[in-house]
UniProtKB/TrEMBL annotation:
GO terms for molecular function: NAD binding; UDP-glucose 6-dehydrogenase activity. SUPFAM superfamilies: 6-phosphogluconate dehydrogenase C-terminal domain-like, NAD(P)-binding Rossmann-fold domains, UDP-glucose/GDP-mannose dehydrogenase C-terminal domain. Pfam families: UDPG_MGDP_dh, UDPG_MGDP_dh_C, UDPG_MGDP_dh_N. Residues 317-418 form the UDP-glucose/GDP-mannose dehydrogenase C-terminal domain. It catalyses: UDP-alpha-D-glucose + 2 NAD(+) + H2O = UDP-alpha-D-glucuronate + 2 NADH + 3 H(+). This is UDP-glucose 6-dehydrogenase. Gene3D superfamilies: Cytochrome c1, transmembrane anchor, C-terminal, NAD(P)-binding Rossmann-like Domain. It comes from the Bacteria. NAD(+) binds at residues 30, 35, 86, 122, 155, 266, 331. The active site is at 263 (nucleophile). Keywords: NAD, Oxidoreductase. Pathway: Nucleotide-sugar biosynthesis; UDP-alpha-D-glucuronate biosynthesis; UDP-alpha-D-glucuronate from UDP-alpha-D-glucose: step 1/1. It comes from Citreimonas salinaria. Belongs to the UDP-glucose/GDP-mannose dehydrogenase family.
Length: 438
């Protein structure tokens, strides 16, 4: 089957590459000609482990290609996936659907024969019906169906998540569209994962409900962590004790500096906004959004305490700025709150991140960059672990402490313990949700 994918970002590119690996003929389209030029040269514009090799393999077979020419991509395609961004609209928290609707109109104008227009972007309930209206208005004679196929992949593990999904959710209105979607995902059936076929609205809601639930779980453990610090409990032990209960599960129970990334912040806001519009506010999600901001601010206070109440004149090494390890994505990363607070307080900040520099340089203009965590710590008064990259999980803490002017460690991912830090010669250590003894 020939498939077109509009948007070659984290979701579109991974989807296109994986669909071609299933055996489909895939054309990936992007408006950004620089991205397409890179892709045509075999270079991947984002950091996603394993994507370069899988892309190369499928380009070699002739099944995968890239273009800025939407018309050519759509010609003969039975399905067109919209995988463009849906950022937060400025001012009101609603998802900005400008890119989705523009793509829908372009598809309508380019398509000639029956096609299923599939929204893979995360879009508020009701959007697929609006996509259908836009297509109908732009090309009244076109024979088409719309389908909602929200994506659940995680950056950093995207290929595995796409190839071995827990489930695939497909919202359709006709048997014909359901059949096209089934044949697209058929190569995965061998793995016996569930494909959930629903109406359009349920598919759209499933994505937001899932993300809001995960954001709530993270925020829940972050609040428990704050209380653990006060009462002398250890949140790691508490989370383990909770997570071994099958009804709860151990995922998304790691206390940290607040959730970030390209999905949870914007999707929780968009869900809260939709709920308000329908006069059915989801107070729990509204609170999660508020608490997550407080969690990030609490991190700044923690570091301030560690620096005896002032960042002024201090030299701080920040290890990790991407919103999580194994991605170069900086969107809504906690670092974007915490690093400016350090700089604003008068610190000199050095950043070390295995993949974050390319995006981070523009977002964190007042810092310097180091490739090596030990070099970043040279003469520093504080080292902060903000993202738990593997590179920062087995540091030689003694060597790190020796290079510092004042050895203090802000471990905002609970990678180490107060005991580890003390043995290594740190004067002060803080982590999350534990009564740190030094
Ligand atoms: P992204 O910003 O990385 O990529 C979007 C791409 O679309 C860009 O390359 C942009 O140039 C291109 N584009 C925009 N309009 C276009 C048009 N009319 N024609 C051709 N190309 C166009 O976005 P992303 O992170 O891949 O997210 C895409 C969607 O998937 C969002 O709705 C997001 O919420 C959802 N999603 C993202 C993730 C994730 O982990 N990133 C996971 C699940 C779902």
């Amino acid at each position: 089957m020939k498939i077109a994918v509009i948007g070659t970002g984290y979701v579109g590119l991974v989807s296109g590459v994986c669909f071609s690996d299933f055996g489909h003929e895939v054309v990936c389209v992007d408006k950004d000609s620089r991205k397409i030029e890179m892709l045509e040269k075999g270079k991947v514009p984002i950091y996603e482990p394993g994507l370069d090799r899988l892309m190369e393999r499928n380009v070699e077979t002739g099944r995968l290609s890239f273009t800025i020419d939407l018309n050519a991509a759509i010609d003969g395609s039975e399905a067109v996936f919209i995988a463009v961004g849906t950022p937060t609209r400025r001012g009101d928290g609603h998802a900005d659907l400008t890119y989705v609707m523009a793509a829908a109109e372009e598809i309508a104008k380019a398509a000639k024969d029956y096609v299923v227009i599939v929204t893979k972007s995360t879009v508020p309930v009701g959007t697929n019906r609006k996509v259908a209206e836009v297509v109908r208005a732009a090309n009244p004679d076109l024979d088409f169906d719309v389908a909602s196929n929200p994506e659940f992949l995680r950056e950093g593990a995207a290929i595995d998540d796409f190839m071995k999904p827990d489930r695939v959710v497909v919202g359709v209105e006709t048997d014909r569209a359901a059949a096209v979607m089934a044949s697209i995902y058929r190569p995965l059936y061998l793995r016996e994962f569930p494909i959930i076929t629903t109406d359009l609205e349920s598919a759209e809601m499933t994505k937001y409900a899932a993300n809001a639930f995960l954001a709530t779980k993270i925020t829940f453990i972050n609040e428990i962590a704050a209380l653990c610090e006060k009462v002398g409990a250890d949140v790691k032990q508490v989370a383990r004790g909770m997570g071994l209960d099958n009804r709860i599960g151990n995922k998304f129970l790691h206390a940290g500096p607040g959730y970030g990334g390209s999905c949870f912040p914007k999707d929780t806001k968009a869900l809260a906004r939709t709920a308000q519009e329908y006069a059915s506010p989801i107070q729990l999600v509204e609170t999660v959004i508020k608490v997550n901001e407080e969690v990030k601010r609490r991190m700044v206070d923690k570091l301030l305490d560690l620096c005896d109440g002032s960042f002024n004149g201090k030299c701080v090494a920040v290890l990790g700025v991407t919103f999580k390890p194994n991605t170069d994505d900086m969107r809504d990363a906690p670092a974007l709150t915490i690093v400016p607070a350090l700089v604003g307080g008068g610190s000199t900040v050095r950043v070390c991140d295995p993949q974050g520099r390319r995006e981070g340089e523009a977002l964190l203009p007042s810092v310097s960059w180091e490739d090596d965590p030990y070099a970043a710590a040279d003469g520093a008064d504080l080292v902060v672990i903000l993202t738990e990259w593997n590179e920062f999980r087995a540091l030689d803490l003694s060597a790190l402490a020796k290079r510092m002017r004042t050895p203090r460690l802000g471990d905002l991912r609970n990678v180490y313990t107060a005991e580890d830090a003390q043995k290594a010669g740190f004067q002060a250590y803080v982590s999350i949700g534990r009564a740190d003894l030094i």
